[in-house]
Every structure is written in structure tokens, then in C-alpha cells.
Amino acid sequence: MNDIFEMVNALFAGVVPIADFLWDFPTNFEWYSNIPILGQFSLAILLLLGGSFYFTFKFGFVQIKEFKTGIKLLTQKTKAEVGETQLASFLMSMAGRVGAGNIVGVTGAVTIGGPGAIFWMWLSAFVGMATSFGEATLAQIFKEKKGDEYVGGFTFYIQKIWKNKAWVGAGMCILYLMYNMLSIPTHTFHVFSAATAIVNRVVGRVTDVSEPVYYVIAIVIILVIAVLTFGGIKKVVQFSDKAVPVMAVLYIVVVGLLIIVNIGKVPAFISAVFVGAFKPSAIFGGAFGVALAQGLKRGLLSNEAGMGTATQASSIADANHPCEQGFVQAIGVFVDTIIICSLTGFIITAGTIWENPAIDWDTLKADKIGTFLTSVEVLVPGTAMDFLIVIFIALAFGLFAFTTLLCDMTYSEIAANKISENKKFITFVRIMGALFFVPLGTLTVLAGLQLDNLWYVSDLVNVVLIFINIPTLFAGRKIIMKAYKNYKESNGKRFVASEIGIESDVWSEEASSAVERA
Description:
Blueprint: H1 2-11, H2 15-24, H3 30-33, H4 43-58, H5 62-65, H6 67-75, H7 86-97, H8 104-113, H9 116-141, E1 144-146, E2 149-151, H10 154-161, H11 166-203, H12 212-230, H13 232-261, H14 266-278, H15 288-303, H16 311-315, H17 322-351, H18 361-364, H19 368-379, H20 385-416, H21 423-446, H22 452-475, H23 477-490, H24 509-517
Antiparallel strand pairs: 1-2
């Protein structure tokens, strides 16, 4: 088995330098990297960040003006005749946004850039809310009806924006399926890591991959994912409706308790964030640009604003107006980064384990989940509760990774409809995800290997998607603005696409009349 994995890893070795080059470009050129501050940012990050600032001003700070509207939409009790409710769509998007990166990613940002990275993470989330509004609105405008469901997302609106060329939509779908499928083993690895961390705590020792419990975990992961995936979009939405609130509340409550018992460290945390944002500590390199780059990058990659990867969830909602999902999804960015990522930031910063002489910081900081759990242990009051708190944190981490894994499976199915709605093709996509790539992720753990080169393929496609999605949002900005203006002028009445000069089967005058009669 190891020989096969090594062969697969070698096969994709050529992707590594290409992915690294595109993600780092042009910081990999000395003339650029020597530019103060700016030289810390790659083109991909500049596109995400620059786009977010542009859309914030272009849409008139919509993330502030319509925040209350988004909350109101989420708290309304509604039923969806076709597709899903606004709340169900929101929870599904949160299943994808809130993942392992909310813990290991934030930990990495703080260990490299210091607590000040959290401040810049907040800034990226604030402006990213406007980008999320734009892409979610486009996803709703160009969604399509399939039976009693809606499908859509950035693979659909990219085709429409770029002169409705079928090959554009199909090509984007293929790229996205590659990205999603090759991300699945990574998420599976995180689920496995969380499960084994819990087992290790329970048995009081570090278990070995050759032990039976690892095979039991692998089988359970594969079976549960397969059952939910083959149940279709509605099955996954039903699961997300229950799992996402549980995992979010679990994490918020546990970290909230840690904050309460460490309330005296809150002022120091706030000070470290704001002071470190502009004057990082020498232990983190003392470079302002590093803190800035790490915080902005983590915020943007965590909440996915501008990457297009959360827009499938936006499209499945049965909204009264496309802008409604824009308002709702902007709140998703807020919850993901400004709330959940900030809680992780508190644990790492308040723990200050880099100041503990008994801890080998230079070695530990390379282990993100180890750094996080060690920080948790430092903040636990030293009672019988410490065992349970660490278990709950590991469980939350596992749920974050699991819901992201499941969400990726469903997003793949939604996107695949752009190529074909044929049931056999959709079943094939489900099989590839649930019965090939998930087992592949478990097998790499059991073999004690990580196919790093294979994962680089998803990194490569990811950066390519950014280079395509942000320019597409820019090209479609007038459509978004017309839709927003229509929403304001009509006071949120049922949207009709022809009123802003576009065609749509979903948002037609006939469909609007049918809804009103119902």
C-alpha cells in the first residue's frame, strides 16, 4: 500500500512548484518582496483584499446598513416550496465556512504574526462581508430550478457573466470538482485527528495507527459520510440544521467558560491585539508586515469571501429577492471570523505559552493543533473539568472538520449540475467523493502518510479560482448594484429579473405571479 501512495505522491510532484509560485507571486521576486509592507502580499491576497475594499465602498457599506435585515431574515419562520429556507441555506454555508482552519489556521496566524494578526483578521472579515454580499446575490440571481430544488453558485454565474458560454461553465465546474474532491482527504484527515485526540485523552496515552480503534474510526467516517451524501442535498441540509448550531454553541460555550475563569486576562488580550497589530513582539519576528499579512490572509481564507466556494449554499435558498441571501451570507462571514476565529485567538493569546520556560516554543509552534490544545490546558483552572474541556474542544474541532467535509461533498453535487443533471452522473460524483476520496483520506492516516503533493493540486486550483472569481464579481458589479437598488426601491418585494435587464426562468414575471397567487 505504501508503494502505491508513494507513486501517487510522486505523480503530482510537478504541481508543487506551480502552486507555490502562483500563491506566492509576485512575493517570490526579490524586487517586489523588498517593497515595505506591500511586498508581504501575494497577488491572490491582494485580489481578495482589494476586491473586498472596493465592494465595501461600491455597495455603500452594505454590511453595516443591512446587518439588521440579515438577522431579521434568519429569525423569520418560513417554509420553502422549492429549495431551502434562508436559515437552512445559512447553516449549510456555515458548515462549509467554519472548519478546521478556524482553529489550526488562526493558531498558525498568531504563532507566526503574533496577537496583532487578530486585528487584521477582523479588518479582512469586515470588508469581506461586502464581497460575500455580492457573490451571494449573483448566485441567487443566476440560480436554476431542478425538480423541487435550486442549484447554482459561482460555476453558474461565471458562465452567465462571461457571455453565457457553456464551455466556461463546464470548465469552471471541472476545476471546482477537482478542488473539492482533492480537499476531501484533507478534511477527512482533520476529522480523524480530532477523533484520535479524544481517544488518546480517554485512554491516557498516545495510541498507534496499527490499533483496532483507528480502523473503527475509519469505517464510521466512511459509512456516515456515504449515508448522508447519497441522501442528497436535502439530507445534508437536514443534518447541517442540527449539527452546525450544536458545534457552534459547543465551541462558543466552552471557550466562553474559559474566558470567564480567565477574565483577568481579557484586558491583556485586547492590548496584545491592538498593540501587536502595529508593533509586534520580537518573539514573533517584530515585523509589522508579517502580522498584517498573516491576519488578513487567515481572515480571507477562513470566511471564503471572494473565493466563490460558499456560493452554492447561497443558491439553494428560496428567497423573495436575491439580495436577501447577500445580507444573510454577509452575517456568515461575521460569525465565522469576528466571533469564532476571535475565540480561538483569545485562547492562543491568553495562554502565552511562548513565555513558559517549561515549553519548547520553537518546536511546539510547528504543531498547530498541539499549540492550541496546550493553550487550552494552560487556561483550564486545574480542576476535574480540565479533562472534559479538552475533550469538548477536540470534539468541536472534529465537528468543524466533519461539517466542512460533508459540505464539500454537497457543493460538488450542486456544481456538477452545471455539467449534467443526469442522475447517473450525479451518482458518479457522489461515489467519487464518498467512496473514493474519503476512504483515501482514511487510508493515508492508517498508512502513516500524508500525500502532500496530492493536496497541492487543490491548492493550485484554489488560487486559480480566486483569479477568476474576483474579476467576475468586478465584471458583474453593475448587476449586483441594480439588484440592490431594485430591493431598496421596491421595499424587498418579489424580484423580477427583467426589471434590471436580465433573463431568468426562476425570477420571471410568471414565476412571481404564481408565488403571489399561492
